[in-house]
Predict the structure.
Amino acid sequence: MPMPPEVRVACLAVAFGFGLLAGPAIAVEAAPKPKPAPSSATQAAPTVPDLLKSLPDSDKIDYAFGAFQRGYYLTAFEIAVERAKLGDAKAQSLIGYLYANGLGLPRKPDEAIIWYQLAARNGDPQALVELANLAALGVGMPVDKKKAANYLEEALGKGVVEANYWLGLLCIDPSSGILDYARAAALFKAAADEGNIDAIYALAALNREGQGVPKNEAEAARLMGEAAKAGHIAAEVEYAIMMFNGTGVARDQKIAAAWFKVAAEAGNPVAQSRLARLYAVGEGVPRDLDLARHWYGFAKGAGLTDGWLEKALAPGAPAPDTAKPDAPKPEDKPLNLPGVDAGN
């Protein structure tokens, strides 16, 4: 959920609250327990509004987000509805998210849009990011990337820093109608300064290609390495390729192979194919055809075929001269644009 809730509920209070507020969610998510025989002394269970009044915190939306995080979506919905009736913008956004994603409720994007719009009017700027996402994807409304950009601009004006990254992506999307690499670079830089790893990766790609900024392979390698070290899988692949070729960084085949292996073990088929090439030739790693076949098997299983490897690993094939892990192949996705994510 792009909208991280600010949950402030103490663990004991949350446990107590969920014991009381499970309601319909428990009926779905847990086996019903035997009930005692009814008697004249049995009283009706308290309703969600009654329980909300009895809870200690004044900011009861925390309980809705707590239920959401535990997977009690119907409970979260019931609590959020009561808060939404009182004009709670965050509760309205939460209801929009539940409808948009079909969590505990039928998936109804049109209902989600209504709730997000209400939340935005009532002061939750994060709802604008959600509306931008729906507009960009054409969910619940026709695809309208300019409208998405307008929502993001408004969110930026209200201090939603994550909107920098999403607006930057629209600025490098040729179909958005607002293609502007220089603006994208500035937006990615602002997002990167806030620690957005995807933005660091995107900014590295722009520096490498000279799009929106002067071409700077050294800066591209530095940024790509920063994203790779933070665990960005596509950046691990790209950084390995740059290091293998000495693009903007000292050439080191062993370290390049190590980065390919990190990404390959994370399940990236491009890294698996590239690592297989290195094992097939013995560059950066000892030559090992069994390991080459092992890693290529994973890549091929994921749908990424490699004619070079097919020939190199064929029975009786001569040892190739070089792995060329960055060699373009028609079946590969391009690796040089942010958002394409190197097979990620």
Residues 251-344 form one domain. The CA atoms of residues 273 and 306 lie 7 Å apart.
